[in-house]
Amino acid sequence: MEIPPSAHHQPYLMPPLQQQGGTLPEGKPGRKRNIIIAIAAGAAVVLTAAILALVLVVLPLFSPDRGMSATAKTYFQALIDGDGDKALSVSDPGVPENEKALLQNNVYKSAGQRIDGYRILDARSDFVTAEVTQNGRKQDILLRMTKSREGEWKVGPKNFQKIRLSSSRPVGSFTVNGVVVAAPDSGTAASDSLLMPAFPGEYTLGISGDKYTTAEEQKALISIDRAISKNTESLKVLPTQLLLDETRTLLENKRSECTASTPGSASEATRRGCSGFAISEYRPTRNVKWTIEKEPTFTLLRGEDSWIIQSAQSGAASVSYEVNSGRDDAPQWEPKVELVIPRASGEIQIVDGKATLKDR
User: Which of helix, strand or coil describes residue 103?
Assistant: First the structure.
């Protein structure tokens, strides 16, 4: 039987049991909210720190300083390797394509005294500072960088020195390290001056043209220390041995022609191009015989469009003949001998690719 509750006693309420896991009694909601907020704040701090750490690690990979350093390293290593094409791919010399001949592999791979070491010291703004070694000499240099339209860093044009190729007379083209280098926009005209950028190194300069022209080779040095660079050369244009040999043959042929039939007067000798083979006698002569005892020597000087024959050492010759000391109707032939000092003279012109002699 159910027993009714007593009028003097209320029912006894059991306190709620605390749940496993340490949750707070439902009777304290404020404290629970505080704990949740504290946990969320802590998580946010951890997440922020993680993001910041990631940014600090990743950001330098895309920073301008790191990009400039990478470009400078590629540039310097290409110079060490003699790889002109690679160095040119990360640089901007600031000249048209037809003026980049000295920066190509076929020229630069043969350059001496290229740089042989480097160390990047700093990179900021648009400058890279590096310690560079060339031929045992160390120098701190400043690379001025530029950014391409695509946003890539390049070694700028202000870093490039230029080699000036010039000659004492116009030539068809030059050679650098054995490679023919045509003058920019020269067309078919000859050029006696050419200015082109070059990487650090030593270059051998010459000329190239026709079979009759050469020059003494010169050296040009592009140094990391600009104060000791030697980049202006004037090449002395010289005749080739072939031209010297052909000139000697032309002079000998002319001498044979003149001595075979001696001109009767100085004016006739000049007209025939035999001014060096006229005898002093104005009276009638016969039985003229020349004896060349010593050949004259000569040098060739480059003119604007020809070669000038200049006597180096005079020769020695004698001429014997008979002279009429009487009248025409009663001649009296007397023997006579003259000593002559022949000299080489004239001008060599190149006509249709062939050397020809012109008397002066």
Answer: helix
Q: Are 80 and 116 in contact (CB under 8 A)?
A: yes
Distances in whole angstroms, Cα of residue 358 to Cα of each of 102, 245, 300, 348: 40, 16, 13, 6
Alpha carbon 101 to its chain centroid, in Å, reads 7
Rounded-to-integer distance, Cα 200 and Cα 81, Å: 12
Rounded Cα–Cα distance for residues 258 and 290 (Å): 10
Give the tens place of pLDDT for each residue, 271-302.
676 767 777 778 888 888 888 888 889 999 98
Query: Which of 200, 77, 199 has its CA nearest to residue 137?
Result: 200
Strand pairing class (191-198; 213-215): unpaired
Distance CA 226, CA 249 (A): 49
**Considering only CA atoms, which of 76, 80, 102 is closest in space to residue 91?**
76
For 66, phi then psi, to 5°, come to -70, -35
Instruction: Identify any residues that bridge with 299 across adjacent strands, giving them in sequence order.
Output: 310
Place of tokens 């990743």: 58
**Per-residue model confidence as pLDDT tens digits over 103-147:** 999 999 999 999 999 999 999 989 999 999 999 999 999 999 999
DSSP state of 62: G
183: Cα within 13 Å, side-chain hemisphere? 21
Give rounded-to-5 percent helix, strand, coil for the chain: 30, 40, 35
pTM: 0.69
Starting at the edge strand that comes first in sequence, how are the strands of the sheet with 307-313 ordered? 297-302, 307-313, 346-351, 354-358
Distance in angstroms between the alpha carbons of the first and the last residue of the chain: 161
